[in-house]
Design a protein that fits this description.
The protein is of the alpha/beta class. The chain has a single domain, classed as 3-Layer(aba) Sandwich (Rossmann fold), CATH 3.40.50.150. Helix content is about 35%, strand content about 20%. The chain contains 5 helices and 9 strands; from the N terminus they run ααβαβαββαβββββ. The protein has a 7-stranded mixed sheet with strand order 3-2-1-4-5-9-6, with helices on one face. A two-stranded antiparallel ribbon has the order 7-8. Helix 2 packs across helix 3. The termini are far apart. The structure holds S-adenosylmethionine (SAM). The site of S-adenosylmethionine has 22 residues, from helix 3 and strand 2.
Length: about 180
Amino acid sequence: MTSLLILHLAFLLASEPVPVHQLEEIPFLPTPMEVVDRMLEIAEVKQDDVIYDLGSGDGRIVIRAAKKYGARGVGIEMDSWLVEFARAKAQEEGVDHLVEFRIEDALKVDISQATVVTLYMLPWFNERMRPVLQKHLKPGARIVAHDYDIEGWPATKIEKLPEVEKRTDGYTHRHTIYLWRIGG
Ligand SMILES: C[S@@+](CC[C@H](N)C(=O)[O-])C[C@H]1O[C@@H](n2cnc3c(N)ncnc32)[C@H](O)[C@@H]1O
């Protein structure tokens, strides 16, 4: 009986999710504009789309989608300074009537109005978002992620961009874009 209880407790502990404070913080690192453009092309963004960028940084993805396609967008960002920057940039680019930026935790946001979700976040974040994306997005919605896959969810399409030199010491990188399409 005791050993069964210990076994049960061990199972419970093993299946506990990793506490948030133990997860790696996701810093601001902007997606290069040529990669942003390709992400929007791969997602086949149109004027009637609503783009949610989860962890929107300086707002470049939703601002670009508004400017290029006339699409509406919502940027979710925890850093208030970046949100202020993105709002000012949207105004400067003349798309502030199409986009909004909210200081919120992207893990807690209601994404049900999104037709396109963009991600440049770490694998743990994408993994946590997977059930939310699968549950709340409507058929036809697309998710497009830069460099980090969503574990356990085979992508509809994966595109590796040509290798680019990132630093003067010769470090190179091939940006990867992942696409998922909600079926139905
Ligand atoms: C790698 S940057 C990507 C910025 C932008 N999406 C892009 O592709 O250029 C990730 C951003 O997510 C923000 N972030 C991290 N965790 C977040 C969370 N839980 N909710 C909202 N924003 C978050 C960071 O402050 C950072 O600006």
